[in-house]
Amino acid sequence: MLREEEKRAFQRMAVDAPVFIKTLSGNIQGQCKDLSATGMSISTSENGVLVDDVVAVSLGEAGGPVSPLRAEARVIRVDQERDYNIALEFIQLY
């Protein structure tokens, strides 16, 4: 029997790259942990988002060998273990 994460329609790719989230109240910096065609998972020590918030996200650093991935995304989950784990669903990629 397939586990829930194996039932996903889109494959996830493990990533360890800086990510920047712009919210209505400020900016959050974190690390992208995984990426798929429809969203990403982020780990951060900061929390400034709530489920259903719409944010601007930038994966990677400007001036690097690859242009940053930029997107508008909706927060679909916020969990806290040691750090905050934020799950984002892409609305639009730029």
Automatic annotation (TrEMBL):
Any Pfam family: PilZ
Residues in PilZ domain copies: 6-91
Superkingdom as given in the UniProt entry: Bacteria
MF GO annotations: cyclic-di-GMP binding
Transmembrane segments: none
Signal peptide positions on this chain: none
Name of the protein this chain belongs to: PilZ domain-containing protein
Organism this protein belongs to: Alginatibacterium sediminis
